[in-house]
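Researcher: Go.
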Amino acid sequence: MQTDARILRNAAWDQAGPRALSILSPVYRFDPSALVTALAKACQAAPDLAVELVLVDDGSGDPALLAKLEAAVMAFPAPASLVAFTANQGRSAARNRLTVEARAPWLLFLDCDMLPDSTDFLARWHQLIADTAPPIAYGGFTTVQVPDEPRLALARALAERVDCLPAAERTARGGVAVATSNLLVRADILQAVPFDAGFQGWGWEDVDWALRAHAAGHPVLHVDIPATHLGLDEPETVLRKFAQAGPNFAHMLARHPQMRTLRSTRVIQTLASLPGVGLLAGPLHVLAASEAVPMGLRSRAARGWRALHAALALRTAPRPAAGALHAAH
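Model: Structure:
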């Protein structure tokens, strides 16, 4: 992929001494002002944290957003850098580029639509590094700061059932319960195990990475240092992303056959074997999208829609299991 980019760095970037932690945030058509403001306040309150901020705009194509990002980097009270792609490269490529720009031995991936749930968020990550130095740690996410709006109700219900789990429950699921939304990684691990840019669109690239990292001897430590996922989607976007994730699921499953033992995967494989299963798409979409349907049924329909598209993807020829890994240069 073409990776033409423009780089902007604030005055503190070249003047700073060694950093302990690089905060890395990929941006795509979402204003990260809330996150950047929270991080700036944390840096001002505790300048000894020795952090730096790196943003990558993944070809958003929005001049107003880019201007906001540039202003945020220049005003940030700690070293900060912005890499702006001229065209969209995808979720994995953007994260790989973040790791190239970062200079600290520890990297904290925070999606641009996240917001720390506590004022000592960064201090707690620093303390974890000082106490245990885990190769990889996932802090989890919540919906506690998301506005209570009907248009976000489906996404909230899905997230709270599957994703907003305490560390003890996530630990039982291992790498399957990992997301790059709030993820601490030792920098050398990302150099050895980059994100696979062969994943297209939305979904599963983070689980694939966590499983490959585990296979390379770097298991995930699940901890409770949460941040809110502010960027919950409206129903049509949720369903579009679930459908888009189908081929990525097939790609991930081909690479990690141990995933076939999971109950959810067995359900998907059963669906894939049923003739005419695609006819379920229409009813499932209607049930999931309608605000008149009880939320329990909407949530089950949305999960069925996701499983259906994963099943349909399994019916097609899988992409190579050892898909090329594209490290950014």
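Model: The chain is about 45% helix and 15% strand.
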